[in-house]
Design a protein that fits this description.
The protein has a twelve-stranded mixed beta sheet, with no helix packed on it. A four-stranded mixed beta sheet has the order 1-22-16-19. The chain is 5% helix and 49% strand. It folds into four domains: 2-6 and 309-435, Immunoglobulin-like (Sandwich); 20-119, Sandwich (Immunoglobulin-like), CATH 2.60.40; 122-207, Immunoglobulin-like; 213-307, Immunoglobulin-like (Sandwich), CATH 2.60.40. It is mostly beta strands. 47% of the residues are buried. The protein has five helices and 31 strands.
Length: 436
């Protein structure tokens, strides 16, 4: 058997393969040693935090309110005097409610990006026409183009809306034929799209391939009861195709045996993605995978105690609801990415008006996790009125190449879990979460 736990993984993340710099900009200064005691900090607001009423706040190291400025329509703000090690917060109205994001450990001279613009990328249409009616037992066809996926009948034209950046290299198109039991029985794939829109692709009957390979996974030492979901992603240039996936129960001994027939579409690299879930906790990790050749089987053994981060324990809130604390039962590390780089916190509160408000914060990871919401001064009641109920959850992220300073801004986006799981973000990624 091939043991993959110690090997660095290529990751996934959301449907496109843009270089990490497009999603996670580098800080322009060495934040390990502040250059001055205080100074200006530029803020670039992206995603859900960009709005015509967004406001940026500056805080001291302990979260004391210092100053505020509006965020302009281009998503830019300049806080003129932020102390070394201080915090900044961005607040925006969302459907009558509010969303807030706080970055800690800020240094003068930094240019911070809050949120991610990945999910706001432009879309284009791709139409794929095929006929699989001659394939025995065909029940439906899953169609992939760029980073999008849809399904059709056994003979159909399927239209997909694809993120533009997923077609930067010309894109890859694939179709997987499935039977009534949802098993793959045939596939076709093609690299490249027509040179100009409209993008229309005809997969001919001669392109169908009916001989598949098999992967058998034996995973052991699962940290708790629940289920394990195995997904396989084949990536070609800027395109990513989820070729197979399925949920498997974790045995009382902490082991999982999973077997899947796999197609072998055109791909530059292939990733396995493990998702463990049970109750209110879960973890996700990636590992490298070779697609089996037609008619062959690959056996894989994985030690889940090495591959996944520990989940945060029960999250305790202070009496005033401002401080959240959690403890891990083991060190926060995984084989692919090493020590956890960042802890992402979400405070959720329901006001007397019945609206829920969300406040996300990032902090350094460790075996004991604690974070305190900063003060918004005169605007506290505007953005975060006295709640009638509230709770918090925390999740950890470890990345093989990026670190805390790279991740703390983009991962504040409420879609960060989606972004981190579904977009190529770098070589090795592990995350875990817990909610109370």
């Amino acid at each position: 058997m091939t043991r993959l736990a110690p090997i660095a993984a290529w990751i996934v993340l959301s449907g496109c393969t843009d270089p990490p710099s497009s999603t996670v900009p580098s800080a322009p200064v060495d934040t390990a040693e502040p250059l001055t005691e205080s100074g200006p900090v530029e803020i670039r607001v992206r995603g859900v935090f960009a709005g015509d009423d967004s406001v940026a706040y500056a805080h001291d190291v302990d979260g004391t309110y210092l100053d505020q400025v509006p965020v302009d329509l281009a998503g830019y703000a300049l806080l003129p005097d932020v102390p070394a090690g201080g915090m900044i917060t961005v607040a925006v109205r969302t459907g009558g409610s509010s969303a807030l994001a706080t970055v800690r450990d800020v240094q003068p001279g930094e240019v911070l990006t809050i949120g991610s613009d990945l999910h706001l990328d432009g879309h284009t249409s791709v139409e794929v026409t095929y006929d699989a009616s001659a394939i025995p037992n065909a029940a439906r066809v899953d169609v992939f183009a760029g980073c999008d996926q849809s399904s059709g009948t056994v003979a159909d034209t399927v239209r997909l809306d694809v993120w533009q950046r997923c077609l930067d290299d010309g894109g890859t198109v694939a179709a997987i034929v499935r039977d009534e039991q949802d098993r793959p029985i045939a596939y076709a794939s093609r690299a490249g799209l027509p040179d100009a829109e409209p993008f229309r692709v005809d997969l001919s009957p001669a392109e169908w391939q009916t001989e598949l390979g098999t992967v058998q996974l034996h995973a052991h030492n699962a940290p708790g009861a629940g289920h394990l979901v195995l997904s396989v992603f084949a990536m070609g240039g800027s395109s990513i195709l989820q070729t197979e996936g399925g949920a498997h129960p974790i045995s009382p001994t902490g082991s999982v045996l999973a077997r899947h027939d796999l197609v072998s579409p055109i791909a530059d690299q292939v990733l396995g993605v493990l998702e463990l879930y049970g109750g209110d906790i879960g973890a996700t990790s990636t590992f490298p995978l070779d697609l089996p050749t037609a008619g062959a089987q690959i056996d894989i053994e994985l030690d889940l105690s090495e591959l996944v981060l520990p989940t945060a324990g029960a999250v305790a809130l202070s009496d005033d609801g401002r401080t959240a604390t959690s403890h891990l039962d083991r060190p926060a590390r995984c084989a692919q990415a090493g020590e956890a780089d960042v802890a992402v916190w979400s405070f959720q509160a329901e006001g007397a008006d019945g609206l829920w408000r969300l406040w996300s914060m990032t902090g350094r990871a460790g075996q004991t996790l604690e974070i305190t919401r900063p003060d918004l001064g005169p605007d506290t009641d505007l953005w975060w009125p006295e709640p009638v109920s509230q709770h918090a959850h925390a999740w950890l992220a470890a990345h093989e190449e990026l670190d805390y300073l790279d991740l703390r801004g983009p991962l504040l986006d409420p879609m960060s879990g989606y972004l981190l799981l579904r977009t190529p973000f770098g070589p090795g990624v592990c995350i875990s979460y817990s909610e109370v």
